[in-house]
Amino acid sequence: MTFDPASLRYNDAGLIPAIAQDNTSGEVLMMAWMNRDAVERTLRTREVTYWSRSRSELWIKGKTSGNVQELVEFRLDCDRDCLLVAVRQTGPACHTGRRSCFYTTVENGAEVVEDGA
Amino acid sequence: MTFDPASLRYNDAGLIPAIAQDNTSGEVLMMAWMNRDAVERTLRTREVTYWSRSRSELWIKGKTSGNVQELVEFRLDCDRDCLLVAVRQTGPACHTGRRSCFYTTVENGAEVVEDGA
Fold first, then answer.
1. Which pTM was predicted?
2. What is the pLDDT of residues B11-52, one digit of tens each?
3. Domains of chain B: which residue ranges?
């Protein structure tokens, strides 16, 4: 079946959550949002592209920082309302310089923060 | 620092996305939503609990199907607006009987669906 980006279920703001996972380690790197144009551009260019909710513009991941995500695999879930992209991540995915955005763990009721890069 | 479920950034509906990842394989199993009560209950009981948007009630994953998710690790991201839970998954995570909800891949413009269980 041909894939049509319009067939995904976007929220009221026209966005769908996209989880980025490291293609080799399986580490979950980040979650961000795509709109229809970002989905189409990600598949066409293989440069993972999100929608920046703060800047209200397409966000080609790593375009300014160099920390690009090359698309390796593009998946959607059973409800068609969430995406999972396997990526070849250059440098850190997180703006804090850490590999992943999920560097804070809750253990025994306390937050434990992993060291930065 | 003590973790306060109220310190997370929920959306206008009071929800935060939660990604469930298999603790051993690293496979991303599903994404669902939690509200503050679900976060609190997940941490207290170690039974991963979501908020069902269709039923508008707490959804103790696997309570009726038996396909429970035992919490192994609870993480939050740099923006405090997304959760990542490492789980010990009993049975399939997906309602279709598949291990993961992300069984559809987009390859060369076409949808490729993995076999069901």
1. 0.97
2. 999 999 999 999 999 999 999 999 999 999 999 999 999 999
3. 5-113
Structure tokens belonging to residue B113? 């669906």
The answer regarding whether domain A5-113 maps to CATH 3.40.1160.10 reads no
Q: B interface mutation test: which of A98, A100, A102, A108 has the most B CBs within 10 A?
A: A102
Pairwise CA distance, residues B40 & B78, whole Å: 20
Residue from B78, B61, B3 nearest B36 by CA: B3
- Please report the DSSP string for B62-87 in residue order: TTTTS--EEEEEEEE-TTSS-EEEEE
Task: Classify residue A73 by burial, with Cβ atoms within 10 Å: 0-12, 13-18, 19+.
Answer: middle
- B16 burial via Cβ count (<10 Å: 0-12, 13-18, 19+): buried
> What is the C-alpha to C-alpha distance for residues A39 and A33, in angstroms, rounded to an integer?
10
**3-class SS at B41?**
helix
Mutate to test the interface with B, among A8, A31, A53 (most CBs of B within 10 A): A31
Q: Which of A1, A19, A78 sits opposite B111 (nearest CB)?
A: A1
